[in-house]
Amino acid sequence: MSAAEWKQRCEAEWSLQGAPMPDSLDWKSVYEARPLGRNLLKNPAPHGLNKDVPPPEPELPEEPTRGPPRFQPDGDFTGWTTSIEVLPYDDSDIPEGVVVCALPTYSWFTMEQVVDLKAEGLWDELLDAFQPEIVIQDWYEESQLHKSIYQLHVKLLGADKSTVISEHSVSPTEDLSVYSHNWKEVSHVFSGYGPGVRYVHFVHRLKNSFLNNFFPTLFSGSSVIVKPLKTSP
Question: Does residue 205 contact residue 109 with C-beta atoms inside 8 Å?
């Protein structure tokens, strides 16, 4: 297939009519990379869970954990940069004068990835002139551990990996008055973000607790998707 035919194939399949498509690009490589419409995050479900199946009910071990407290959940976090922040004891809800024998220790488990949009097959002219929508989605477990168990911060970065062109943060509060144990969706669409975007920095934090045993907040289905363009009406 000729270079022109690969270009036409990309244009037809991704509705790129009217988009800047320089002849200098290797359109066969762009087509094979398939940068539009697929999840650009690596390893989006490290716990091996599917958001279309309810999260597993927590199981309480028969005996308390022996040894030092644990703060990181199980999983294969290949592709993610991870870190742990152990939080001070939270005694804000304890009435004055009440003696408590033990309090849970909370920790934030942070996972982040930086997506190189050009390495994934996108090109400067498309990102700068057309600015296709960049869709962020995540699903986290209603773990009932605390009123704040999840945070998300996504930044669109320039070529230097530090200039922030656009960003979105969310830190929901959980309703602990009624028990619910499902996946909760978090999503955002970046559009009209301006020229210069070359990277997406995806960071989310989930809260875990330890009191005799370890109790995590799980997640699944994280995604960064650059949407195919819509044909003009």
Answer: yes
| Residue pLDDT, tens place only, 95-112 | 665 555 667 899 999 999
- Euclidean distance between CA atoms 149 and 198, whole angstroms: 30
* Whole-angstrom distance, CA of residue 107 vs CA of residue 93: 18
What would the two tokens of residue 184 be? 């909760």
Rounded Cα distance, 160 and 205, in Å: 25
Q: How far is CA 158 from CA 110, 163, 195, 223, in A?
A: 23, 5, 9, 20
167: three-class secondary structure by DSSP: strand
Structure confidence by residue, pLDDT tens digits, 112-160 = 999 999 999 999 999 999 999 999 999 999 999 999 999 999 999 999 9
**Distance separating the N- and C-terminal Cα atoms of the chain:** 30
Which strand (E) or helix (H) includes residue 83?
strand 81-86
